[in-house]
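Predict structure. Chain length: 374.
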Amino acid sequence: MNNIPLPTESQLTIGDAHLTIDDSRFKTRDSRIYPFFATVKQYPLNKKLKIFLNYFVGPILFVWLSYSIYRQVQRQGDVQQSWQLIRSAFAGPQLLKLLSVIALVLLNYGIEAHKWQLLMVRIQRVSFGRAFRAVLSGQALGFNTLNRVGESAGRAIFLDEGNRLRGIVLSVVGSLAQIIVIFCMGLGALLYMRFNILSETQQIGGLSTLWLDGLIYAIAAGTVVAVLMYFRLSWLIKLLEKVPFIAKYRFFVQAMEDFHWRELTKILFLSAGRYVVFVVQYLLLLQVFDVNIAWFDAACMVCVMFLVLAIVPTIALAELGFRGKISLQLFGLLSTNTIGIVATAAGIWIINLILPAIAGSLFILSVRLFRNKS
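Prediction complete.
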């Protein structure tokens, strides 16, 4: 076998094409070396593109998200009146409850950050602070997407290069856990509402009791399927791998196969904890705006509303009007304080969605998609 030294830089001509290759890392190679084993020299254009993506994408996303949030808030007719009620609550006797609702936002996103940490540990260890920033940035980026599906991509930009696509896939496990909690709690609340609150003559959104019963059966079936999928992820992946297109990208989903049922149960409990925080926030804000409903009945109405929001495709930026209508349909069965009901829906939208999205858009400013390599 003949070993010959290679030049530090060589010109390769194939037909009419000219390619510059940088093989300074190779001191000797077998004489049968093929051109494609050499390392292609980085051109200035690639470097400039990386610089652009690193230092300009964050600010561009920040401006776009900030403008989108501003425009949508301006378009919501109930926001101004609700904001006035929220401001007046700071000077009223319900101040402590209002401050508790705001403080629970930190607990809410803290639980979600820890859950994301547990999901990502299979591909990369992430500090809690970084996970918290990722969750808020995901909230900002998901704000303009249907049912906030863009959240996973917003979080993934805080992962290292090479882990981002797998991070998006692993986030699906956390989303599925949250959906299971929403469906289970919503189904129980729907049954309670059906037999304890609704009368034979009352309807919600034009649904007769017959259609409501059919909806309950459909949600129950969907919940069972979601639970089976969640605790049998390996079966689901093996089934999906039979699809040729998905089989080619098995590398991105294989980490989902290794989840133990104890890990999945822990993630499910964290999702349930976050759900309880949501419900408590809503109950406190109902009291702030003098919507006097028995706490158990109100909690059931909140669970049904979350179920509807999970089923019906909406964009978070534009869902305030939809939230208001659903709130009036549900809480209107138990209270005539329509102003307080709408103000509660708007308050939750501002405190739980708008403020975290603004904070997340600020964190996006610091994102660097590429890291300098020595």
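Summary: Confidence is low (pLDDT under 50) at residues 1-45.
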